[in-house]
Each structure stands twice: as C-alpha cells, then as structure tokens.
Design brief:
Number of strands: 9
Radius of gyration: 14 Å
Strand content: 35-45%
CATH topology: Jelly Rolls
Order of helices and strands: EEEEEEEEE
Strand order of the largest sheet: 1-8-3-6
Largest sheet: 4 strands, antiparallel
Number of helices: 0
CATH class: Mainly Beta
C-alpha cells in the first residue's frame, strides 16, 4: 500500500478498551483512520442512517474510514465482555484525534 499526503501528517496509534455497555459517543475524525478489533465485538452506528442499523465487527475485523469531517459515528460495546480496538489515525499535524458532535437523533441511545 502506498499513501500520499499533500501536507505533513501525524501518525498516531491508539488502543481503545471499551467496557461492556460502553460507547465512544458521536464523533468524527479530522483525518483517515484504520482500525481493527483485537478483542471482543464492537458495533458501529452511522450518524446519517435514519434506520440506526448496527454494523457488528467481531475480533479480527475492522475498517478504514476516509476523512470527510462529516462522517459522524458512534462505536459501542453491546456485549458483556471487554472489547478492544487498535486505531491508526492519519492526521494533519497537531490535529485532535476526534471531534465530538451532537447526537444526530436517529438512535434510541
């Protein structure tokens, strides 16, 4: 894989541990992210989905999120076991890892 950026970037790798019933809150990222579930199961909800459809990711799966600054999502652990993800952020230099956003109102949680 080859990646090109038109500006300098920070590459940040973070391990997120989410307790049973925990969630990340509605947010976006200022740059692309690559993530993998390394333990347990994570469920993602998209902020632009009026049906609030869960996207379930068990251990060993993950996704790539392109940067849009409007990709609102919420990562939840809806199981009774700890879940963990490893996330690689490709960010403009000095940018935060995430930008918190208000609840879009489609999901009951």
């Amino acid at each position: 894989m080859e990646l090109e950026a038109d500006q300098p970037i920070d590459v940040v790798v973070v391990i997120f541990t989410v307790q049973p019933g925990g969630q990340g809150g509605w947010h976006t990222h200022p740059g692309p992210t690559l993530w993998t579930v390394t333990q347990g199961t994570m469920t993602i909800y998209e902020g632009d989905d009026p049906t609030c459809t869960p996207h379930v990711y068990p251990t060993g799966t993950g996704d790539v999120e392109a940067t849009t600054n409007t990709h609102i999502h919420n990562l939840r652990n809806e199981t009774s076991s700890i879940a963990e993800t490893v996330v690689t952020f490709l960010l403009p230099v000095g940018a935060p890892l995430r930008i918190d956003l208000p609840d879009p109102g489609y999901c009951p949680f």
